[in-house]
Amino acid sequence: QAQLVESGGGLVQAGGSLRLSCAASGNIYRINDMGWYRQAPGKQRELVAGITSGGSTNYADSVKGRFTISRDNAKKTVYLQMNSLKPEDTAVYYCAVDVVSSVTGKFWGQGTQVTVSL
Questions:
Q1: Average pLDDT of the residues in 107-116
Q2: How far is CA 118 from CA 14, 41, 63, 104, in A?
């Protein structure tokens, strides 16, 4: 089955930038949709951005114009470039990948903390 490893979180001042990465590995036949979710303390997990296998993207209204999702199919990796970060972007960010493999379904990364200070 698939394993996902995230990297790139951290602490940044408001207005700064971070780039998250999520690499998939394992016995993967095909990767379909990939996406990033986030969960802030006391709130439900929400979709931040998604990208299809064909490259179509969608974004939460709160991040449009500031975040960019992309993918490298050869590396089985999805990225989230986050610019003009705001304190309200503070959350644990999770990648999610729809995988066709020996075990087909949606797999989740372990989560990476993003903290934006004033």
A1: 97
A2: 5, 18, 18, 42
